[in-house]
Amino acid sequence: MEQRNNLDTIAIFHFISGGLKIFASLFVLIYVVMGAGMIVSGGHSGGAEMQITGGVILIFGLFGFLLVVAMGIMSILCGKYLKERRNRIFCMVISGIACMNAPLGTVLGVFTILEIEKPEVKPLFEANKARKEEARRMAGN
User: Fold this and answer.
1) In whole angstroms, what is the distance from residue 17 CA to residue 108 CA?
2) Which stretch of DSSP H or E encloses residue 70?
3) Which residue range(s) make up the domain with 32?
4) C-alpha separations of 127 from 42, 49, 88 in Å
5) pLDDT at 4
6) What is the mean pLDDT of residues 98-120?
7) Does residue 2 lie within any of the structural domains?
8) φ/ψ (deg, to 5) at 99
9) pLDDT tens track for 58-78
10) Separation CA 18–CA 94 (nearest Å)
């Protein structure tokens, strides 16, 4: 009989969290558009300060966009790995990072870490790791 755990439910919440992060990254693109607009309008009116400010806003907007998209992708990967019962350490790291996204990310991160650390859940990840290593050995021979 398989032990009862909440990994599948938590994985679904990681998928939702990742999707929401990727959706939220679209709002960060407003800064990219605003910065590009300042660069263009500063070029027409001859305002070098406006162009420099627009460039700074554009760079920070791109950085923020890429950061939020990367976090969304990593959260989705965490959900995928939880469903597959593999990469336990990756899931713990992403859950720790998710704790910085208060309040929902904190709840998701804490519950994920608590679930992964349960004594009956750890062997599920180890069994998949052992199967993967065995498959590699068989393929190498």
Assistant:
1) 9
2) helix 48-84
3) 7-140
4) 61, 60, 12
5) 63
6) 92
7) no
8) -65, -20
9) 999 999 999 999 999 999 999
10) 11
Half-sphere exposure of 99 (CA within 13 A, CB side): 12
Domain count, the chain: 1
Mean pLDDT of 48-54: 88
| 85 in Cβ contact with 124 (< 8 Å) | yes
| Neighbouring C-beta atoms of residue 107, cutoff 10 Å | 14
In-domain check, residue 1: no
CA neighbor of 124 nearest in space, from 91, 94, 97: 91
CB 74 within 8 A of CB 22: no
Which pTM does this prediction carry? 0.84
Q: Reply yes or no on whether the pLDDT at 114 is more than 50.
A: yes
